[in-house]
Amino acid sequence: MTSRSSTGRGSTAKAVRTVRPAYHCDSCGYATPKWVGRCPDCGTWNSVVETAPSAGGAVAAAVPALAARAPSEPASPIGTVDLEQAARRPTGVDELDRVLGGGLVPGAVVLLAGEPGVGKSTLLLEVAHRWCATGATAPSLVVSGEESAAQVRLRAERTGALHDRLYLATETDLSAVLGHIDAVKPGLLILDSVQTIASPEVDGAPGGVTQVRAVTAALVAVAKERGIATVLVGHVTKDGAIAGPRVLEHLVDVVLHFEGDRHSTLRLVRAVKNRFGAADEVGCFEMHDGGIRGLADPSGLFLSRHADPVPGTCVTVTVEGRRPLLAEVQALVAPSVIPSPRRAVSGLDSARLAMALAVLERRCKVRLHDREVFAATVGGVKVAEPAADLAVGLAVASAARDFPIPASLVAIGEVGLAGEVRPVSAVPRRLAEAARMGFTRALIPAGCGPAATGSAPPKGLTVVEVSDLGGALRAIG
């Protein structure tokens, strides 16, 4: 009798390895064995695409052991590492240097993300120009994958960003970009944008997860090897997040967000990640016809000027990063002709405004349930921190009862659901900024005054501590 193998039709039969397609999300990189219309991880529709098929159905072979090899450089004691290799070089744009922690570190890779048309290319063209104008030993190279050379030249003519040592290239191929780096040998490289560059050796469309990861990894390796300060421009999604895989933010050293409203001249550069400095700094810029310029003292932009006090206005002091900024909150309360009165907000958190209205109605007996309430900030600034709650509550109460708040008063504090005014951070810094701008009276939470902190009050500023919103209303009459 002929015996048969229990594993197949013969002892020489081999197991057949099945090949099945693999799918991943082009937005976040999530992998799934089958196609789905909506990514289970990030929730994006129609972003799951098929990738190269992967072998399955059999046990993977064991990973071969790696043999040790001689390192390129021997390990050295940390105390002997030369610090000059990481010396910062200022970009020439003071507000950007403030966010970066003093300037760009050789070999550092910075990712600057922002909405289309906010001014990223204009800012970086100015940085490239200032880099050359301030006497850098190595030139700057701008690689544009979105605009032609003539379009970039027109912008440079308009903003005055022309220099003999500023080089410009328009490429969408990674190999060509590396060739330009070899030819120019720049000290500063600006790539606009990383989503438009593709590597011919990697599958996938430009801007996809695989391409963005490969392009960024190659540019990071070149920047570290040659000590080139590199700035990558990144796109953002409709939710404001950086487009592409999350690993993109882990590969770079610094992540900056460029924020601003197209209808306002104000622009903010906010640090989200910084391996070489603080990650809570904010730089302020102003867009104008001649380009972009930094604002060393932007507080005046967020205040309106009235000959006489107007009901429904109150000034607060917010903290953006480590910088205190004065912001004016305006409110308008009007009778409603519909059963559900409207609540409109601009520049404020709608949830915190709704809470302030409920506290005013319940704790302070301010009638608002049958009235329309509109609240906004001045100058296009967005105020989301809880320290503005007291100013919002006072502005709404002032508009509802038609009494003006003194123009020389600022209000700082978080309001709780019980109507109490809670402590906030950096009160001495906020008071110093209010005194510098000419305000003479400040309402702050109880226990946050100069006596509690052991510091002297700012000259010319009277500090009044309040424990609840009702006490704040009584303090202003």
UniProtKB/TrEMBL annotation:
Membrane-spanning residues: none
Region (Lon-protease-like): 372-477
Placement of sequence motif RadA KNRFG motif: 273-277
Annotated Gene Ontology cellular component terms: cytosol
Pfam family, one: AAA_25
Listed GO biological process terms: recombinational repair
Record InterPro entries: AAA+_ATPase (IPR003593), DNA_repair_RadA (IPR004504), P-loop_NTPase (IPR027417), RecA_ATP-bd (IPR020588), Ribosomal_Su5_D2-typ_SF (IPR020568), Ribsml_uS5_D2-typ_fold_subgr (IPR014721), Rubredoxin_2 (IPR041166)
Entry keyword set: ATP-binding, DNA damage, DNA repair, DNA-binding, Hydrolase, Metal-binding, Nucleotide-binding, Stress response, Zinc, Zinc-finger
Residues binding ATP: 114-121
Superkingdom in the source lineage: Bacteria
RecA family profile domain span: 85-236
GO molecular function: ATP binding; ATP-dependent DNA damage sensor activity; damaged DNA binding; hydrolase activity; zinc ion binding
NCBIfam families: sms (TIGR00416)
Function: DNA-dependent ATPase involved in processing of recombination intermediates, plays a role in repairing DNA breaks. Stimulates the branch migration of RecA-mediated strand transfer reactions, allowing the 3' invading strand to extend heteroduplex DNA faster. Binds ssDNA in the presence of ADP but not other nucleotides, has ATPase activity that is stimulated by ssDNA and various branched DNA structures, but inhibited by SSB. Does not have RecA's homology-searching function.
Family to which this protein belongs: Belongs to the RecA family. RadA subfamily.
Free-text note on domains in this protein's UniProt record: The middle region has homology to RecA with ATPase motifs including the RadA KNRFG motif, while the C-terminus is homologous to Lon protease.
Record protein name field: DNA repair protein RadA
Organism: Actinocatenispora rupis
Taxonomic lineage from the root: Bacteria, Bacillati, Actinomycetota, Actinomycetes, Micromonosporales
Protein's gene: radA
